[in-house]
Amino acid sequence: MVDPARALILAAAVSLLLVLVFWPGIGVLARWQRTRLNTRRILIEDALKHLYDYEYQQLTATHRSLAGALSISGDEAARLLEGLQSLELLRAQGEHLVLTDDGRAYALRVIRMHRLWERYLADETGVNETEWHHQAEVKEHQLTPEQADALAVRMGNPSYDPHGDPIPTATGEIPVKRGIALTKLQPYEHAEVVHIEDEPDVVYAQLVAQDIHPGIHIRMISIDKDKVQLEADGIENALAPIIAANVTVVPVDRTETIERHEATLADLPLGGSGRVVAISRACRGPQRRRMMDLGILPGTTITAEMRGIGGDPTAYMIRGATIALRMNQAKMIHIQRNEEKAG
């Protein structure tokens, strides 16, 4: 004979289990279904980004390129492509994959969220630049278009992300690709960096280590199959050609480069002074705001007063206050030297 108390406990346990599994909205099944749907949505959005990226670069996207970009099997890529076609986001032309108007608009919304978030991380936070892309890869799937628009307004509707990639507008407008690969420059030519590729990580890390970033002016010294020798803001660097190919530049007139980067604050001798021309674009986020709060703005005259033991840091007179800056900070402040120097 079954113990009534035990039967009651068993029935209650079964009822609780059913509630935990099947309760609408919060049950295990509901959560699993949401996770599955979110995973599928992320996969769709990543696929659309890949297809648009190939289109923007005037390359041909294929079943194989999609599988490689998303690190999925060929079978998974085939099922994904079938789903995109059923949603009328994609059409196939033989082996070539072409976005529909709806697919292109969807891709641009995701790309806009990604690049706005990278711009936010660069300008408003202290997150290391090697992490911008990875954090934006997650956030792009979480922001709503309304949140993206609010973020853009907060930042003054920026046109480019910190790597030099154009940020699509809310209506899907985007500038055409500009510039040439750094490896296309001839010896003695001058150029401005307008874009650096942030993938793969190992390549981007080397560019970061060499302080190559959008806005920097360079002069090609020499180039061969083994090495690219260049001068970036007065500092000589050597890059492997495969690394240099990830940098896009726009050629500029030699006199423009010389005038823009005549000197940095680090070049001032003790007693020397100069007028701030610009703060390097490599100086971002809290560090840039701190410099501006200290009065380091275009037009400010700064005098080098004394140096610490070993030559670093240096104390500068800035708007009536003595402020110590380290060498790496002073190198980010471009100046026009005054003709007369004290001492």
Description:
- The chain has 343 residues and is an alpha+beta fold.
- Among the domains are: 28-99, Winged helix-like DNA-binding domain superfamily/Winged helix DNA-binding domain (Arc Repressor Mutant, subunit A); 180-259, Roll (SH3 type barrels), CATH 2.30.30; 262-337, Ferrous iron transport protein A (FeoA) (SH3 type barrels), CATH 2.30.30.90.
- Helices cover 43% and strands 20% of the residues.
- It has helices at 4-22, 28-56, 63-70, 74-86, 101-124, 129-139, 145-154, 201-209, 241-244, 254-260, 285-293, 327-330, and strands at residues 90-93, 96-99, 180-181, 190-196, 217-223, 228-232, 235-239, 247-251, 263-264, 273-279, 301-307, 314-318, 321-325, 333-337.
- The strands form three sheets. Strands 3-8-4-5-6-7 form a six-stranded antiparallel β-sheet.
- A hairpin with a 6-residue loop joins β11 and β12 (314-318).
- The longest helix has 29 residues, at 28-56.
- The relative contact order is 0.07.
Features:
single chain; 43% helix; SH3 type barrels; alpha+beta; 12 helices
Stretches where pLDDT is under 50 for at least 5 consecutive residues are 28-37
Mean pLDDT: 84
Structural class computed from helices and strand pairing: alpha+beta
Q: CATH topology of the domain at 180-259, anyone?
A: SH3 type barrels
Biggest β-sheet strands, sense, barrel: 6 strands, antiparallel
Determine the N-to-C terminus distance. Answer: 107 Å
- Quantity of strands, as a count: 14
Summarize the helix and strand pattern as letters. HHHHEEHHHEEHEEEHEHEEHEEEHE
Count of helices?
12
- CATH domain class name of the domain at 180-259: Mainly Beta
Radius of gyration: 27 Å
**Which descriptor suits the 3D outline?**
globular
CATH superfamily (homologous) name of the domain at 180-259: Ferrous iron transport protein A (FeoA)
Helical residues, percent? 40-55%
